[in-house]
Amino acid sequence: xxxxxxxxxxxxxxxxxxxxxxxxxxxxxxxxxxxxxxxxxxxxxxxxxxxxxxxxxxxxxxxxxxxxxxxxxxxxxxxxxxxxxxxxxxxxxxxxxxxxxxxxxxxxxxxxxxxxxxxxxxxxxxxxxxxxxxxxxxxxxxxxxxxxxxxxxxxxxxxxxxxxxxxxxxxxxxxxxxxxxxxxxxxxxxxxxxxxxxxxxxxxxxxxxxxxxxxxxxxxxxxxxxxxxxxxxxxxxxxxxxx
Amino acid sequence: xxxxxxxxxxxxxxxxxxxxxxxxxxxxxxxxxxxxxxxxxxxxxxxxxxxxxxxxxxxxxxxxxxxxxxxxxxxxxxxxxxxxxxxxxxxxxxxxxxxxxxxxxxxxxxxxxxxxxxxxxxxxxxxxxxxxxxxxxxxxxxxxxxxxxxxxxxxxxxxxxxxxxxxxxxxxxxxxxxxxxxxxxxxxxxxxxxxxxxxxxxxxxxxxxxxxxxxxxxxxxxxxxxxxxxxxxxxxxxxx
Amino acid sequence: xxxxxxxxxxxxxxxxxxxxxxxxxxxxxxxxxxxxxxxxxxxxxxxxxxxxxxxxxxxxxxxxxxxxxxxxxxxxxxxxxxxxxxxxxxxxxxxxxxxxxxxxxxxxxxxxxxxxxxxxxxxxxxxxxxxxxxxxxxxxxxxxxxxxxxxxxxxxxxxxxxxxxxxxxxxxxxxxxxxxxxxxxxxxxxxxxxxxxxxxxxxxxxxxxxxxxxxxxxxxxxxxxxxxxxxxxxxxxxxxxxxxxxxxxxxxxxxxxxxxxxxxxxxxxxxxxxxxxxxxxxxxxxxxxx
Amino acid sequence: xxxxxxxxxxxxxxxxxxxxxxxxxxxxxxxxxxxxxxxxxxxxxxxxxxxxxxxxxxxxxxxxxxxxxxxxxxxxxxxxxxxxxxxxxxxxxxxxxxxxxxxxxxxxxxxxxxxxxxxxxxxxxxxxxxxxxxxxxxxxxxxxxxxxxxxxxxxxxxxxxxxxxxxxxxxxxxxxxxxxxxxxxxxxxxxxxxxxxxxxxxxxxxxxxxxxxxxxxxxxxxxxxxxxxxxxxxxxxxxxxxxxxxxxxxxxxxxxxxxxxxxxxxxxxxxxxxxxxxxxxxxxxxxxxxxxxxxxxxxxxxxxxxxxxxxxx
Amino acid sequence: xxxxxxxxxxxxxxxxxxxxxxxxxxxxxxxxxxxxxxxxxxxxxxxxxxxxxxxxxxxxxxxxxxxxxxxxxxxxxxxxxxxxxxxxxxxxxxxxxxxxxxxxxxxxxxxxxxxxxxxxxxxxxxxxxxxxxxxxxxxxxxxxxxxxxxxxxxxxxxxxxxxxxxxxxxxxxxxxxxxxxxxxxxxxxxxxxxxxxxxxxxxxxxxxxxxxxxxxxxxxxxxxxxxxxxxxxxxxxxxxxxxxxxxxxxxxxxxxxxxxxxxxxxxxxxxxxxxxxxxxxxxxxxxxxxxxxxxxxxxxxxxxxxxxxxxxxxxxxxxxxxxxxxxxxxxxxxxxxxxxxxxxxxxxxxxxxxxxxxxxxxxxxxxxxxxxxxxxxxxxxxxxxxxxxxxxxxxxxxxxxxxxxxxxx
Lengths: 243, 240, 290, 313, 409
Hints:
Chain C is mostly helical. Chain C has helices at 4-34, 42-60, 64-91, 96-119, 144-166, 168-176, 180-185, 190-215, 225-236, 242-262, 268-282; strands at residues 134-137, 140-143. Chain C has one domain (4-282): ABC transporter involved in vitamin B12 uptake, BtuC. Chain C has 11 helices and 2 strands. In chain C, strands 1-2 form a two-stranded antiparallel ribbon. In chain C, α6 crosses α8 (190-215), α9 packs across α10 and α10 (242-262) crosses α11. The mean pLDDT of chain C is 88. Chain E contains 13 helices and 14 strands. The model of chain E is unreliable at 1-22 (pLDDT under 50). Chains in contact: A-B, A-C, B-D, C-D, C-E, D-E. At the D-E interface, α1, α2, α6, α10 and β2 of D face α1, β2, α3, α5 and α7 of E.
């Protein structure tokens, strides 16, 4: 039971704009890795590259899974999801006109997850009681915090091994940010997940992260091998605020 | 000196979600203002309200002392408020030159001869370094050129106030410098500029004054240095 | 002229008619309402369904409804093939709005004329035992010709509703137009989902066509009469909502028959399309949009 | 076609048309040309809203029919001369177009198209129930004997149609290369960006729908004289709506010449096929041409030609 | 404009071959081969071609073979003027006849009139009322007052019954023929002292007719006159049956009940319906040649998707050609004035009986039959080929049986 993600020299962009300039990073089994940086620096693009939604022009992304190596740059999003990688996308991307429960059930679309659907649904409702209360409500009519919970729960419904979370804090009040981040930690421990979390909120992210990278302008500018290393580094402020 | 743009008590809600609340902001003529804030803090909503793409629920907006709160966007454009869009929205079926003629003919009111509008458009394109692309279809431009076109089109409206919405996102360092240089030049020509930007270095270099939004409110206002040093701003970006 | 039994009959016959309208519109509720594909040729497929029912009814004496149900897989396959062309030519290049519309317009003519070339223009009818006679409950009559289509349409609507809300594929179909990127993240291929959904939409035309020819005679161009109505129902029903579509169809049926009974049938289309116009002008999300 | 080229070409066409009426005495050409010119005006008109502004109108036949029925109503009341009939029809249909324009405030894309479809059915029902103009059973209109200096009424109707067609092409061409046309193109490409560039989008859309309506109405005004007998079923014929969409799509919607080329090509092909193959294939032709063109050459004939020129240049 | 001229040149070139050979006599017409009226139009064309072959087998007209030049008008009136001008001026046909139906006949009138051609016409209802063209001849036996004659029989029959019915309902489709029929019915009803209790029209695209029939039922009429087209005729008959319409007489001006496919489908539902017709296989109407004609028609119609029995329109389509042919033979010329004179002055023997023309080119005396469906069995097409199923109950001269009254016991 081993999982690893190895990203090497990834270049990617949209049209003529390059958003990533040779990004390399590693994630090992059961780690929580934070990808830190303010908006527009390429965090989301990297997430999309892992998911096969943006094709890197160069570099490799290799998912090691129980001894087998999968080159994600050659797989479709569906195939990547089927390997057990799930993304909680930026902006949550719920299906607003479907109910909470329908959203969750869609999360279990991948064949492997369909078998355990009852168990996973029960888990999700236990982990997020508010979702059970509102399971018949349309996803679009819920508050931002609830929507974020739903987005995470939906990703969990696919019974992933590697969970990518993109900017869970956006648009949430500080107290909700903190509880969302705590929830991710809780879930990670419970399911034995490996987590890559892109986040701007430095302090919240490193609260649950084992280590982190800082990405500025499409390049990894700092590889913090431990939380302590990140916390003590004054560079962070400089990278964040451009001073 | 009286303010060019005055925003007072502005609020905007989407359903139950409050995107902006109690926004008060004065922009002086000729000023270079940076508008920053983490993602989802309401920056784009604010400029949508100023340019008229959205109507605010509360508060008032005045431009050159005139209340424009209820004016449709095209009239605001004619009064001298121009903007560029975060995701470029060129008029894809028109050539680059004709893209500029639209604001020239509608907002800047260069109703004079056919030729003059064209010359004027060429002049703007030259100043943006886009002259060589004048007769190309705008849909085929590269990202950098598309962003320049976005600015050029805004400029062609002969604005008093230019709102630049993330004109540099995704550009390389050299390209960022290029766009910054253009903005400095415009400012030198007397145009007031509000710049929304994620690239901090650019904001810091460009702005005389920086306003930081977080969760729909203004949390800090000051010089770039003051803003960066501000605890609230740091909290907004780095979290608590 | 107003009387209780006239009123009751107008309502009941309106409901029966509305049920049939639902069968006509349900394919569009999926294809147009949920996939945003403006398949203006849908009524032409319905006519193709009528001819299928007619051919098997007149040569082998099979029941038209059963023929319609049996023909669904074939229609499904045709639908899948058409979606592939549509996808390759328009959706992939982002041309779907105007060109896609014209594409289906052309398709409509091709289907119509092909039917004319093969089967001529004479009116075609089917015979089925239940298509004559009526069931009377109190002073309300339920003509078999309308009752059977009503029941079949209700069953079809119910099944489609169950399919869309209870199966993985069904939920994916509902989701695909809302956010296809997010659907990909669920491990589903949006193109295949849409192709499947389009196939189902066309498959319903086989049944709707059988119902149409039970109700009355059919020739290749009568489908045009249902273009406006079918789209009106889908829009009134709030696009893509199956329950909304059913309510809108029943409502349209009742309104048309009320106007026909109490005011004058020649104003019925103006009233129903007037409602559509007003809805579009004042509540574009439809009467029952959610 | 800069400067004097276009007016000169128009003048040449008028002179040629006049010479044609003087030299040729075969009414077939005039009647066939009438049908093609009628389709041409409809296509040009449709394209002003559909091609330039990006709003699809399914109700072309309704505008055409209302134009024809305006003539009938006036003729029932008094012996109104043809030019006045055309003016009145343009006015009435322009007003209806103005009303349709207000729909664009709330309706975009497919919704707008469906609204125009519904409007067509409502108008048809109204005419069906208006007995003064014959109602659903239709009415016969006798062609007057007077026809200016022309040899026959069909020659005169042809000349009238030719002038109307030139007029609408001129309007469409002027629009497309003018400030207004660029405004419309901006609306088609991005309504928000257009508005923020100072384009008064609602006002321009109203102009666009009004001009479209007026042109279609004018095209319908001489129709009662042409067929002598009008009933709603044929005046609201779906084929009119189909042709006015298909012709610009085949010719190319982005350029003013697109609907002209499309109408001349498809319209002539239809006339030729009517008198040669003359069967279901006639209807099939429109369907197949439409499907082939939009799948293989979405920019239409004019688009293809321009691409070719650009490549050579 | 270049393209127009090029295409015209092309069209001319395409027909240069035809125009060159002046040998055969050319008869030109437009016909609805597609569109709404195509069903009837195609049947008419088959009948006309049978006539052409018959004539040519006998050596043609004036010793010349007969050739048709015809184009599809697609049931679109706008196509008719170019077609007729082409026929007359490019194809230079020697004779013209009309298309089928009022909408397609009238647009040709001004053109045919300008060329002063004889214009035998196929089922236009009062199409010459406005034009008053003296070379127009209508083969439909509607009589000198077509609108009135159309329903006169229906109301006379009703008036003869005892007890005399008092009230009448009139309902018609919103389209040309049906509304004219209804207008005539209204006048006849008033003239014969009936009280009109229901008088409404409906759109042809109606799906369900039960609410209409119920609204009629609610006014309690003794007789119900319906002006309708094929699909709505079916809907009306079915709805009358389903609702249990209690009228004593039902029918009148329903187009479609004359067609075999519809008769077969409706079957016993038709019993006792009284409806107009022009020819039925009753012994009283066994005109010379009609049997032979129908045999040929039924053979030719196989697999063409047209009416398999062809009782309604085809004999008349054959007949109007017959008269034209006779006129050419008798006058030994293609002189239009002489031919018109022959049409006017003679009684013509045709497969639909003796025909004489009167005012406005309509039949001098009406022969709108009222037939009553009797003893119709379910799902049987052949039964309608023979006598007894559609009994002529009006007028006296052609009567083959007495009406059964009331419609529903």
